[in-house]
């Protein structure tokens, strides 16, 4: 039988980064060297785009046991689109600590808020107001679970595993698929999952999505501000794992035009009264409040005031129409889905399917709580700083 031609080396070189082809076994001998009680701490923060994450590391004399043991630091905000060069120092304020799955114990990853020179929150520091709101509603015990969809790309910007000059077969066999002709990049996905578990991120699942090279992981249940903290760290770990493999994870809500699914960040939500027997009436009341504030939520469910989501929320490919609010039991074409089991049990949670994959989870969870617990209406938000 004639032999199949070997894949071209040039095609492989274009799809993965140069750094990924370095000998990782060489790195291992350095990672495992003793540290004599010293600890490497990697500070992680959200940059001026509101979508990207940055990091830098420093040495501490001993292992921090709590977030209070990690000192504040600073960085050059003019290089992250967060300050001007003439006044560029920004403060990194540690807020949550995780184990480091890349440098291993006792080293740490630390998520930080960013403050400007005057100690006011940076424009993309949406955690600051989210924390205030979550503290106000803590007696309601808001729980969240967010389903982060993403797409793997080669460094050439083409979906990883797709033909160089064409498209894979139509959608259908890829969702939760198994087999080399159904899924692309499972090694990356499983490495990310294990890294999150090691770090202490509350990751609770993963699956291949409808479009080939598209995947999803779920984080939660998390209460209050914890949701945004854990999802942002899960995103950072995803980008770092992809860096090791030489590919790119994009959170673009519609990375491929045409008859391909977009990428969202479906948000599951409940309060304590929704989780109790008879809680369905509280779920329905919350959905009614959301229905009257659709425009406000669309504006905060992606970083560009709804423009990103307008490419995704078309009423096709398991989405609702961006201009219309809808809700239904087990309806994946609705703005809000009530799971069938919740409808049968009469209590539980509901799923807001509108947030885009590149949403800021602090903005999304804050908006849901403002509307459903604090009973805000209209497109303006209330400032609780003076209350």
Automatic annotation (TrEMBL):
Superkingdom of origin organism: Eukaryota
PROSITE patterns recorded: GLNA_1, GLNA_ATP, GS_BETA_GRASP, GS_CATALYTIC
Annotated localization: Cytoplasm
Class of the enzyme per the UniProt entry, highest EC level: ligase
A GO term, aspect molecular function: ATP binding
Any single Pfam family the record assigns to this protein: Gln-synt_N
GO biological process annotation, one example: glutamine biosynthetic process
EC numbers, comma separated: 6.3.1.2
GO cellular component, as recorded: cytoplasm
Domain GS beta-grasp: 39-119
Ranges for domain GS catalytic: 126-387
InterPro entries listed in its UniProt record: Gln_synt_N (IPR008147), Gln_synt_N_sf (IPR036651), Gln_synth/guanido_kin_cat_dom (IPR014746), Gln_synth_cat_dom (IPR008146), Gln_synth_gly_rich_site (IPR027303), Gln_synth_N_conserv_site (IPR027302), Glutamine_Synthetase (IPR050292)
Record's keyword terms, sorted: ATP-binding, Cytoplasm, Ligase, Nucleotide-binding
The keyword ATP-binding is annotated on this UniProt entry: yes
Catalysed reactions, as listed in the record: L-glutamate + NH4(+) + ATP = L-glutamine + ADP + phosphate + H(+)
Database matches in SMART domains: Gln-synt_C
Entry similarity comment: Belongs to the glutamine synthetase family.
Protein name, entry field: Glutamine synthetase
Natural source organism: Mycteria americana (Wood stork)
């Amino acid at each position: 039988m004639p032999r199949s031609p070997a894949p071209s080396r040039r095609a492989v070189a274009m799809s993965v980064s140069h750094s990924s082809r370095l000998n990782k076994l060489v790195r291992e001998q350095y990672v495992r060297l003793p540290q004599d009680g010293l600890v490497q701490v990697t500070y992680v923060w959200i940059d001026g785009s509101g979508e990207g994450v940055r990091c830098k590391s420093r040495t501490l004399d001993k292992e921090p046991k709590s977030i209070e043991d990690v000192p504040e630091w600073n960085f050059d905000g003019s290089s992250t689109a967060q300050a001007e060069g003439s006044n560029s120092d920004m403060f990194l304020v540690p807020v949550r600590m995780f184990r480091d799955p890349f440098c291993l114990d006792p080293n740490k990853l630390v998520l930080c808020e960013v403050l400007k020179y005057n100690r006011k929150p940076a424009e993309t520091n949406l955690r600051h107001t989210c924390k205030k709101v979550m503290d106000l509603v803590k007696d309601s015990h808001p729980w969240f679970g967010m389903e982060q969809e993403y797409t793997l790309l080669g460094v050439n910007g083409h979906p990883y595993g797709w033909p160089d000059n064409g498209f894979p077969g139509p959608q259908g066999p890829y969702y939760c698929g198994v087999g080399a002709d159904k899924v692309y990049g499972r090694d990356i996905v499983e490495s990310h999952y294990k890294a999150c578990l090691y770090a202490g991120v509350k990751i609770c699942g993963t699956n291949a999505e409808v479009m080939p090279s598209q995947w999803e992981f779920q984080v939660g249940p998390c209460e209050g501000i914890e949701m945004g903290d854990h999802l942002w760290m899960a995103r950072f770990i995803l980008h770092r794992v992809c860096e090791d493999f030489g590919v790119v994870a994009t959170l673009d809500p519609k990375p491929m035009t045409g008859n391909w699914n977009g990428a969202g960040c479906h948000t599951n939500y409940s309060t304590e009264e929704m989780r109790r027997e008879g809680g369905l009436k509280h779920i329905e009341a919350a959905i009614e409040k959301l229905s009257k504030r659709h425009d406000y939520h669309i504006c905060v469910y992606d970083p560009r005031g709804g423009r990103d989501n307008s490419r995704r929320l078309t009423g096709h490919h398991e989405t609702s129409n961006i201009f219309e609010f809808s809700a239904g039991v087990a309806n994946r074409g609705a703005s809000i889905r009530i799971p069938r089991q919740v409808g049968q049990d009469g209590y539980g949670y509901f799923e807001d399917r509108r947030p885009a994959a590149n949403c800021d989870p602090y903005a999304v969870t804050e908006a849901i709580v403002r509307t459903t617990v604090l009973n805000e209406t209209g497109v303006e938000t209330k400032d609780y700083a003076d209350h």
